[in-house]
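Weekly structure sync, notes
Attendees: PL (lead), two postdocs, one rotation student
Agenda item 3: pending single-chain targets
PL asked that the sequence for the first pending target be pasted directly into the notes so everyone works from the same version. It is reproduced below exactly as submitted, 447 residues in total.
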Amino acid sequence: MAGNGSRRVTDSRFDAALQVLAELERAGYQAYLVGGCVRDMLLGKRPEDYDVATDALPDEVQNLFPRTVPTGIRHGTVSVLIGGERIEVTTFRTEGAYLDARRPSEVRFVRSLEQDLARRDFTVNAMAMDRRGHLQDPFDGRRDLREKRIRAVGEADERFREDALRMLRAIRFAAALRAQIEERTWQAIRRHAGLMTEIARERIRDEWNKMLRADLSISINYLAASGLLPIVFPDISPRKVKASFAPHQGGEAARSRYVGTQDFVAERWRQAADFANRLPDKSDLRQAALFWQLGVDEATVQASLRRLRQPNSFVRSVAAILRAIPDSDPLTWTAETWRGYLYRHGKQAAIDAMRILGEASEADNGKIGRLLDKAIERQPIWSVRDLAVDGQDLIRELQIPPGPLVGQILTELTEWTLQHPACNNRQHLLAAARVLYQHWKNGSQKV
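Predicted structure, written out during the meeting:
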């Protein structure tokens, strides 16, 4: 596919999509790549997926291809399995009234590509391209893409009443493309922000997670100015945000009135976004950086992420990063302090925490990172499993009875090894364990 500004993309998914287009055309149907893949190709990016739109009805698509899956048959979508790939093929359609700001009351299949494109959210997503690279752009999306503008297709108020999530999508696209939201579209977002409360938290989460890896400053500015920010993060109330970064506006009296207001919270979010934006686009790292800059406590962090339906693994990772950000200056730590720190927090949480701390220090110049690298290289153990002996060794060699005492002695051996890395060998650790066991047998409540 060439011409019209698109870049030839050579991968198996693209080749599979071309096969689908060709087969539909040979059967006498219209067939186009549509939506995000067209936008990405015009930007010179490799799309993640290729979606096909056609005037063929779902049963006609199923009859044409030997291997299909009725992915969303009620909405006209059939997945075609071809060339080892799955390509979604959707019949041109229009939609009935939206009764819940999420789903259309009905779907009607049509034969017109333009009618199908007219139901889409933004002009940059309302373009289609045939297999020869000819672009169909009835709403001038290519110009908006070139001029970095996010504009609703048709009437913005109607688009957002149809699906309120589109307001977050507008902000996410603005952040991803470093674009501006067109004025009428922006004013419609501000008018309809309250509709976002009707959207499932999982859908909000998916948009937020994509914002985390885009330009956070753009996202937070739009979220704050539109009133959507407290809907996405209702647990981050004014009383939960620390005032350490609050600007002095008009003297201390004016500042005291400003702290604890929604305007104060919005400003803190903007400052936090500017900071997190300087970090790599790793979602848990940036989320932790935002919360750290806001100064919210761990309970609020956990509540916010769980309300957003984030996976448990993500919640644990963000919490681990925040716990690993030290109160003291790592530049003053001894080698033993580094060993204990790495053992308690683990390698990845330590790396992310030190990235945040290093970025916050204007005078760091990579010093913390270099110390961390050296400490990681020299770390003797990361868990009790790295000791030169295990519980079975203690039971077998020293006749220590199985039970909690074995675990207590292993914990003591771990602390000993962190203090004296050279002692992590079988001879030294068994000797130390023998002393600890004797200490316990002599009547001490602790080993």
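Discussion points:
- The chain has a mean pLDDT of 90.
- DSSP finds 22 helices and eleven strands in the chain.
Action: rotation student to compare against the earlier draft before next sync.
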